[in-house]
């Protein structure tokens, strides 16, 4: 299942789960909770991994202000969009938030290649970064 921008949607919920913070459920948390419930009902189903000489593995990555995401798709001749194999995202850790945009994009691409290799092994990949 894939939920676009998951880490950004649920970030207000993570704030109330940290031990160092007092628990406070406010409007921001309620809005995030309502939005994630809505997103779950419209989530994209993932396909199984396909193999073969005509199968192309395509990795997309993107970095934003709060975190980054990447997705892995497979395309065969005749398909225009391809089929999703996986979607990942995470918030920046520590000093990663201070990286310049180019470094954030490189980090997203690196993490994407690492995650994709766990799904498709060492198969050749096409990496697309906006």
UniProtKB/TrEMBL annotation:
<dbReference type="Pfam" id="PF17919">
    <property type="entry name" value="RT_RNaseH_2"/>
</dbReference>
<protein>
    <recommendedName>
        <fullName>Reverse transcriptase/retrotransposon-derived protein RNase H-like domain-containing protein</fullName>
    </recommendedName>
</protein>
<dbReference type="InterPro" id="IPR041577">
    <property type="entry name" value="RT_RNaseH_2"/>
</dbReference>
<dbReference type="InterPro" id="IPR051320">
    <property type="entry name" value="Viral_Replic_Matur_Polypro"/>
</dbReference>
<dbReference type="InterPro" id="IPR043128">
    <property type="entry name" value="Rev_trsase/Diguanyl_cyclase"/>
</dbReference>
<feature type="domain" description="Reverse transcriptase/retrotransposon-derived protein RNase H-like">
    <location>
        <begin position="25"/>
        <end position="120"/>
    </location>
</feature>
<dbReference type="InterPro" id="IPR043502">
    <property type="entry name" value="DNA/RNA_pol_sf"/>
</dbReference>
